[in-house]
Amino acid sequence: MNDFQENCAWIRSDENPVIRPEEGGPFGEGVCMNPQVVPFGGTNYIFYASIKPDGGRTIFLCTAPSDRPLETTPRGPILENGPEGSFDHAWCVLPCVVSAGGGLWYLYYTGNRGFGEGLSRFAGIGLAVSRDLIHWRKYGDGPVFRPADFGSIGMASVSAVREPGGGGFRLYFTTFPTCGSNVFLDQQKRLCYAVSGDGLSWTYKGIIMERDPGREYENIAVTGGCVLYEDGLWRMWYNAIGTRWGFYSICYAESEDGCSWYRGSVPFDNMHIGPAGLRRLDCSCEDPSWECQMTEYPSVIRENGHLRMFYSGNSYGRTGIGTAVSAALRAAPAGDPAGGAVRIWSFAERGASAGRLLNEVSADCSPLSVSGCWTGGDHNGDFWIEEELSLDGAAPALRCRVVAIHRQDLISLECAVENRSGSALRGISVSAALGSGAPARVFWENSDGSGFAVPELPAGATVNVHGGISPE
């Protein structure tokens, strides 16, 4: 793949966390973690892991009307932990539900036996079956797939998907090659997949994704998330661990065959939801309490013309489960060394359009050339592009920085133009071009087009211009 076919920005709910643990509470105690949402018959079935009053960690269920997804009704725990010595005695976690056809549903989950070194406690994938998505019974006494089947020390985090055409099943999951205490060296979690004709007997196929040393938010490990297949495109939201935050964030990848996955051309174009800091790029404050440490284990569904994601917060869900919805547009730097290049994705239309936020810049009617370009991003997928511009090969005359902030219906742009020359510059003109057929348009205040002009800028002065990118 040369580029993402679909990419989106996420707007987090102001009501987060929407499912939270409470002592003696109906949604469970200690943690609410690993959500997976199944829309069916006008109802969202939200499966997640929590702790029962007796201390057992297992799968819980709550439901909500599909058109009112935050009006949740707790249904309590739906699985019992296994007997002492079994693979799921301590924990039944990380649920994933998939239709098996004929009105039958399969629930895959990760078992933790409660003994062993570190991640080796996760000793296999269990299965439960249901006819109504509410009442579940375990299939057999042990796991249907275990790490010993392919030589790993442990496995977890499954996402089960029906093969295109419904001929079989595909299971994406996390494996653990080592157990050491040094996270950067010894816990290089990676994503693998297996196939099955009936969803019961599995054949291991190999590794599909490992950490990316070139991206500081996923240079330690990657773990399983949510895989969707639609109209010939495989999409995956997965958990990444890197040195930038030291904990999980939620990233994105695409595939044409479900085996070879594309993570984008430059860092941050696949960053979807990271740990929320105290401030965004636009300096607005965020609540530091529930997701300031980590964001992880996404579940994504389609809902009324957008996507909705449910995901866990700090300490693997000790602060609960939150939600976010996709925005109308997503933009990301395109990595063009000439500077200023971006790609725009419209949620309403598959495919990306290339363009420039800082396209043609001139002063006193003389064009300026790009002598330097830098980009960066944050935990929301928001980004900045900065260009240094020179006139006729001389010392830098202007520096332009654009900050792009994703909103629900548009992308807000803030541009600062600084005169770095030793004299006043007149007739400064800056234009942006997204190219023909772009799904969006650029606008600037006090301008009818995609550019703006600054009549005069004294030496050392800076002017700020506001604008945006809106759907066409």
Please, could you describe this protein's structure?
This protein is an all-beta fold and 472 residues long. Helix content is 2%, strand content 52%. It contains 2 helices and 32 strands. It has helices at residues 183-186, 314-317; strands at 10-12, 29-40, 43-51, 57-65, 73-77, 91-101, 104-112, 122-130, 137-138, 155-162, 169-175, 190-196, 203-209, 221-230, 233-241, 248-255, 271-273, 296-303, 306-312, 321-326, 329-333, 341-346, 349-363, 366-367, 369-377, 383-390, 396-406, 411-419, 425-433, 440-444, 451-457, 462-471. The strands form 7 sheets. Strands 21, 22, 23, 24, 29 and 31 form a 6-stranded antiparallel sheet that branches. A 6-stranded antiparallel sheet has the order 25-26-27-28-32-30, with no helix packed on it. A 4-stranded antiparallel sheet has the order 1-20-19-18. The longest helix has 4 residues, at 183-186.
Brief write-up:
With about 475 residues, this protein is mostly beta strands.
Provide tags for this entry.
472 residues; mainly beta; six-stranded antiparallel beta sheet
Total helical segments: 2
N-to-C span: 26 Å
Return Rg in Å: 24 Å
Strand content: over 45%
Please state the overall shape, judged from the principal axes of the Cα atoms: elongated
Mind describing the biggest β-sheet?
6 strands, antiparallel
Q: What low-confidence regions span 5 or more consecutive residues with pLDDT below 50?
A: none
- The beta-strand count equals 32
Query: What structural class should be given to the helix and strand makeup?
Result: mainly beta
